[in-house]
From TrEMBL:
<keyword id="KW-0694">RNA-binding</keyword>
<dbReference type="InterPro" id="IPR001678">
    <property type="entry name" value="MeTrfase_RsmB-F_NOP2_dom"/>
</dbReference>
<dbReference type="InterPro" id="IPR023267">
    <property type="entry name" value="RCMT"/>
</dbReference>
<dbReference type="InterPro" id="IPR031341">
    <property type="entry name" value="Methyltr_RsmF_N"/>
</dbReference>
<keyword id="KW-0808">Transferase</keyword>
<feature type="binding site">
    <location>
        <position position="175"/>
    </location>
    <ligand>
        <name>S-adenosyl-L-methionine</name>
    </ligand>
</feature>
<feature type="active site" description="Nucleophile">
    <location>
        <position position="228"/>
    </location>
</feature>
<feature type="coiled-coil region">
    <location>
        <begin position="308"/>
        <end position="335"/>
    </location>
</feature>
<feature type="domain" description="SAM-dependent MTase RsmB/NOP-type">
    <location>
        <begin position="1"/>
        <end position="296"/>
    </location>
</feature>
<keyword id="KW-0489">Methyltransferase</keyword>
<comment type="similarity">
    <text>Belongs to the class I-like SAM-binding methyltransferase superfamily. RsmB/NOP family.</text>
</comment>
<dbReference type="InterPro" id="IPR027391">
    <property type="entry name" value="Nol1_Nop2_Fmu_2"/>
</dbReference>
<dbReference type="GO" id="GO:0008168">
    <property type="term" value="F:methyltransferase activity"/>
</dbReference>
<keyword id="KW-0175">Coiled coil</keyword>
<dbReference type="Pfam" id="PF17125">
    <property type="entry name" value="Methyltr_RsmF_N"/>
</dbReference>
<keyword id="KW-0963">Cytoplasm</keyword>
<dbReference type="InterPro" id="IPR031340">
    <property type="entry name" value="RsmF_methylt_CI"/>
</dbReference>
Amino acid sequence: MDKLVLPKEFKDKYQKLLAKKADSFFTALEAEPKKAFRLNPLKADYQEVSYDLSKPVDGVEDAYYGEISGRDIEWVSGYVYSQDPSAMYPAEALGVEPGQKVLDLCAAPGGKSTALLSALKNEGLLVANEISASRAKNLRENIERWGAGNCLVTNEDTSHLAQKFPRFFDAILVDAPCSGEGMFRKNHDAVTYWSQEYVLECSNRQKEILNEAVKMLKPGGSLLYSTCTYAPEEDEEICAYLVNELGFKLVKTKVSVASQGIPAWGENLDGIEYARRFWPEDEIGEGQFLAKFILSEINNEEVVTNSKQKSKKRVKKANKRLEVFTKAEKELVQELLADFNLPNNFDFSKAVKSKDHVYIPAVEDVSQIKVLNNGLELGVLKKGRFEPSQQLAQYLGQVRQEKVVELQNQAEFEKYLHGETVRTEEKLKGFVLISYQDKIFSFGKVTGQVVKNFYPKGLRV
């Protein structure tokens, strides 16, 4: 990697802010970045992976230092997620409980969303939103791989989402778009678009996002604010904005690693020491800031009232979008499902059909918002037959299965990822789950001894 060259304006700023500590900060920015991954506790026997689990990330459940590959079966089957170790702490700090309604407002590529889904343990709801359409597609793929069925993936503007979900969530995570100073060591290109003007632009955008986020949080609900920058304008100063302008109170989190928030940079707020700054010299990971808040006041009542008045109309429109799901069609789906072991939380009675897609919705009324995935897609009805979805295969990976074709070696695994057929000696027929190293990652269909490939074209290598 090329040597990191910091902008003079950046160095001058932090020399002034950090004084004697500035030299150790700049030196730490030249060190090698750390890499880590999390295991997926939703998957069957999830700790049976080929990676070294001897170096845990302090204070983060199922997280370890080490590097993984996106070509490995552990990644393809959703058993692991590669994530910067510092970036693991915001989801941990939010302290989500099973059964809660949670929003990940700026969710792509999905690291924090998958961690929140792990914490929810198949109970409650996660809405994972991303305003960028291209990044939202990547978010959907990563969440699908994780194998949870209780997530709504949206591609929405924050203000539209706020109209849809007034005072709805128990907890919200806002990992806000920022100037990216914390990524300088890991991604030298991040330096090229940095300027003090950009820092201030990001600060204004963060306030706009939070102005809408507060409308979606229940009174007494939790908000976790985080960035991957060191800038006080985007960190402690935003904390002051949340407390002084939006009715929040800073609270302690279960994250005790890293450094405290700096009072002088945040108007000496009560509780600013509860915030956490991940400096490179802390030797945890890349740059990160986090702070947790409780909403102590009711704000924006007019917006909330107006949104509730619209909700009845939305329900009627949503119902029109659903098609009649006939008894014969339901039997087709149930016939396929009967071949597999289903997780305890599976409830077919809630299944619906739209444009021949059969799914179990995480949210019933999704009118007037852009939805990429709602809950658990079971598959597609096609002229008297039912074809299961890739998401269903990953979801079924939560429990051990019997109707499985186990690929015998790395070459077969790579052939399947490429979209090729494989052969089997198993006495099976019809749709089967495909596994490698006892990790389910797709569907196939057996005819004779040939397994037709159902790994999605968009995921093929």
